[in-house]
Known about the structure:
two-stranded antiparallel ribbon, 16% strand
Amino acid sequence: MDITGAMQEYCDNRPPQLNLIQGYIFKSKSPSCGIKDIPLFNQKGEITQTTRGAFVSAILQHYPNLPITDELNLKSEAQYAHFLQQVKCYSQK
């Protein structure tokens, strides 16, 4: 089932509704929410490139300096603290 149209509509409409957002933790490897290395397929099902997920792109288009990460980048206490520091700095702007 192709949900491209519905996903694009969501990506167009949802980010402006998040006007109090200060950081975002995305789901790694998700076609819509992966922040890196998400395969992009052509009509033949072949990978043509890797990119970030559509929703990540929409969020960053609307909030270009927003601190983002995924759960794989929050495994250690140091990574977690670093992300929280980024959020704190962002929220003070």
